[in-house]
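Repro case for the chain-ordering regression, as requested:
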Amino acid sequence: MLDLKLIRSNPELVKAALAKRGASISLEPFLALDERRREKLAEVEKLKNKRNVVSEEIGRLKQAGQGAEAMVLEMREVSAAIKDLDDEIRRLEGEIQQTLLGIPNIPDEGAPVGRDEQDNVELRRWGEPPQFTFAPKAHWDIGEALDILDFERGGKVAGARFTFYKGLGAALERGLINFMLDTHTREHGYVEVLPPFLANSASMTGTGQLPKFAEDMFKLEGTDYYLIPTAEVPVTNLYAGEILDGGKLPIYHCAYSACFRAEAGAAGRDTRGLIRQHQFNKVELVKISNQEDSWEELEKLTLNAERILQLLGLPYRVMALSTGDMGFSAAKTYDIEVWLPSYNSYKEISSCSNFRDFQARRANIRYRVGKGKPLFAHTLNGSGLAVGRTVAAILENCQTEAGTVKIPALLQPYLGGVTEIK
RNA sequence: GGAGAGAUGGCCGAGUAGGUCGAAGGCGGUCGCCUGCUAAGCGAUUAUACGGGCUAAAACUCGUAUCAAGGGUUCGAAUCCCUUUCUCUCCGCCA
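-- result from build under test --
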């Protein structure tokens, strides 16, 4: 959520910033609402003041045993007027709030300006895509041939975009989760949390999934529960409504969760394999930072996610997302893309963003330094990493001509010493 | 799922036959004083949001709101009524 005062005092700046996203938003109706609200507010506050003063006087008179009938009658009318004005103001505020919640974050100056993913900027590469002396197979073929992934039965039991992992496939997924969590907690200083996989609408609003992206999520019928699309939601909202001790920032959390996405607009895309599932596993990194350090924290967080790929020996590149390709809540985003032979290209495996105070304002996450006023925190998060896509990358990049898969050395202890899936 | 109890400021905790309560007291925090060391003592201060005034911006100042949330009764509600949420205890059920 943007600062109402910023929009009010500097609408042109806001408009220009949002235009970079390709979002042309007319702020005039909004500003008119805001103007009207303030008028009504001044009006009603004057009346309330009168009511407070006179009511006090009535109390005094009654205790002195004197009548105050005329005043009571007058105040009865004042109260009626107040009620009408309050209703009007409530209505206006609701409208303003809804509009505000629907406006995306202002892109940071450092984010490359562009229309879509074509304009993303490559920052760096690590590792070399493997050169195969044979025709490499896609991970879905490898997985079925080794009997470690079962897409067919996933479809039977649940539906399209659901998969059974089996045997060493399941163990590989589980081992990766532990490997990632261990690396982030032991080497990068994150505190692990295991969050609820359902969250309510207030939390979904806090991180920006609602109100605009309801159709991307699964909602439990007859309840206020949504299946979380990412652990970002419960973990960031961990501190919703709180005033944190500025001295305790930054807070680093990593969290494993299953993630659930309706993939409403993705029909026909990535239909095969593990790349785009309704349910997938992810280890998420979340940071609550002060306002000064969040940019540095974003760089560090991205490196923490990259580290996993380096330890696994998987080639990747890092992209700075263009303003037109960034998510709704982000001020700046780096995508990490892993090499995927079946796509013959790099494929997103992590997305690391600084939201600045956009989420904190919605979720009311603040901190205080000394005796100072509470300040909105800056929130960040990134995948560290998407586990299913990591499995896909390992199967494809580490495959052999014989159809087996070599397990990266550092992962072997997590698979009971297994060196190869065959 | 059934029965009961509860939700007050950073924390603990008063306050319910409605009126001067943004809210006693304590703890903690901050500033000052005192004491030739740590301690203790004394005094003061210590919420947030929104809107107005002033300002380069603050400070400051005025107003309004906030005692879980929302609604109602009333001239006036932390105090009365209704709804919802959450917490605790007992029973049932269950991993």
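Ordering looks correct now. Chain A has a mean pLDDT of 93.
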